[in-house]
Amino acid sequence: MLIVVLAVWLSVRVADASSDSGALADRHYTVRAGDTLWQIAGHFYGRQRDLRQVVFTLEQANGLRGRVLQPGVDLRLPVLQ
User: What residue ranges define each of the domains in the chain, with the CATH number in brackets?
Assistant: First the structure.
């Protein structure tokens, strides 16, 4: 009986893990006029995180050297753990 319960539990865990894999994919955002990395970081990553680190991560992920953004640029928003 224990083996059956364990097998069912394990199959449910595997099914849950496969359905969450899409949730961990990077997102993208198209820059609009007036946007800043600070605003984007706060909006997409929440204010509970250190926004300095998030802005740095966004710069690194997108190969940005400055914080001035051009409208129409597609930013990669990496998954942060």
Answer: 25-81 (3.10.350.10)
